Amino acid sequence: MKFLHTSDWHLGRAFHRVNLLGAQAAFVDHLVDSVRAHGVDAVLVAGDVYDRAVPPLPAVELYDRALHRLAEIGVPTVMISGNHDSARRLGVGAGLIDRAGIHLRTDPAGCADPVVLADEHGEVALYGLPYLEPALVKDEFRAEKVGHEAVLGAAMDRIRADLAGRPAGTRSVVLAHAFVTGGQASDSERDIAVGGVEAVPASVFDGIDYAALGHLHGCQTINERVRYSGSPLAYSFSEADQRKSMWLVELGARGEIASARRIDTPVPRPLARIRGRLGDLLEDPAHTAHEASWVEAVLTDPVRPDDPMARLLARFPHALTLGFDPEGRPQETGASYAQRLRGRSDQEIAEDFVAHVRGGGPADEAERAVLQGAFDDVRADDTRRETHR
């Protein structure tokens, strides 16, 4: 039985100031085409369908179109809610939608009620385990502690108990949205830590033939049977080196992973992270390949250049972020603010401030003169006020 495993669509999310709805619609088109092209038996969507609990209307409309298209091709889809989704909103109408072959699993209490499919080798039970917020589901699962490992472990015990009561040889798949130990995070995932502990061991999925995970945005293999599909699009520059894809997984007759390969997803525009002095970035031919990319630039000029973003945009019209990390920046001494000011004149403090806000480089002679004139005017005003009292 073939599954197409995807997750973390984040419908409605932008990339910095760029609206990604068109790119997300292109991904939905690609998803449907891939289901047809590869003879997929079921689609697995492991959470974070939306980017936030109350998504914008265009994102809801795209989600609606995606469900209709998946239902039209007659391939079952199992979808869970993630930590970005509102489980109740995503699950509205689940009972009715279920009849169209779209199986929404957003209620933790129903995690041991699988979608059962069959092929020539027998049945496959697909369990949808939505994101579990420990404080909210602790009582439901009678977990001993408030923590991700405790509640996910209790939910998996319930799933294994249901599986044990099914016919011998029933194969099993679990969809889950969690941070599993060994996974590599990126900057665009929302922290799900509780009490500083967020990761759960892969062993929590022992006894399951395949765990289709969501939450981490990089496609990765924890072990042969536990995998993240990653997000179909990049949502931060920390994902610049990630290859975006979905898993096409074939489950064998005895529950073995007969094959697992990646299906690449469309890239709306490449990402590039560039670093150096502004003049070098504008002139170096090595950066020619990035002129059509979304660009994150970090300038290392000792003194902050004039109008740097406008100058960058002249060469890199899709530059989105600009940072500064000046060469030769003084190391922090660890001294308190009061200690750093002790024994320094107003003029020296002001000149230090100029150097700080420009990211390095002391005030020049003209700037020092302007500062000195400002202090002289203030002192003159103070003198006049004292004289007229």
UniProtKB/TrEMBL annotation:
<dbReference type="InterPro" id="IPR041796">
    <property type="entry name" value="Mre11_N"/>
</dbReference>
<feature type="domain" description="Nuclease SbcCD subunit D C-terminal">
    <location>
        <begin position="268"/>
        <end position="356"/>
    </location>
</feature>
<keyword id="KW-0233">DNA recombination</keyword>
<dbReference type="Pfam" id="PF12320">
    <property type="entry name" value="SbcD_C"/>
</dbReference>
<comment type="similarity">
    <text>Belongs to the SbcD family.</text>
</comment>
<dbReference type="GO" id="GO:0006310">
    <property type="term" value="P:DNA recombination"/>
</dbReference>
<keyword id="KW-0269">Exonuclease</keyword>
<keyword id="KW-0235">DNA replication</keyword>
<dbReference type="GO" id="GO:0004519">
    <property type="term" value="F:endonuclease activity"/>
</dbReference>
<dbReference type="InterPro" id="IPR004593">
    <property type="entry name" value="SbcD"/>
</dbReference>
<keyword id="KW-0255">Endonuclease</keyword>
<comment type="subunit">
    <text>Heterodimer of SbcC and SbcD.</text>
</comment>
<dbReference type="GO" id="GO:0008408">
    <property type="term" value="F:3'-5' exonuclease activity"/>
</dbReference>
<feature type="domain" description="Calcineurin-like phosphoesterase">
    <location>
        <begin position="1"/>
        <end position="218"/>
    </location>
</feature>
<dbReference type="Pfam" id="PF00149">
    <property type="entry name" value="Metallophos"/>
</dbReference>
<comment type="function">
    <text>SbcCD cleaves DNA hairpin structures. These structures can inhibit DNA replication and are intermediates in certain DNA recombination reactions. The complex acts as a 3'-&gt;5' double strand exonuclease that can open hairpins. It also has a 5' single-strand endonuclease activity.</text>
</comment>
<dbReference type="InterPro" id="IPR029052">
    <property type="entry name" value="Metallo-depent_PP-like"/>
</dbReference>
<keyword id="KW-0378">Hydrolase</keyword>
<keyword id="KW-0540">Nuclease</keyword>
<protein>
    <recommendedName>
        <fullName>Nuclease SbcCD subunit D</fullName>
    </recommendedName>
</protein>
<dbReference type="GO" id="GO:0006260">
    <property type="term" value="P:DNA replication"/>
</dbReference>
<dbReference type="InterPro" id="IPR004843">
    <property type="entry name" value="Calcineurin-like_PHP"/>
</dbReference>
<dbReference type="InterPro" id="IPR026843">
    <property type="entry name" value="SbcD_C"/>
</dbReference>
<dbReference type="InterPro" id="IPR050535">
    <property type="entry name" value="DNA_Repair-Maintenance_Comp"/>
</dbReference>
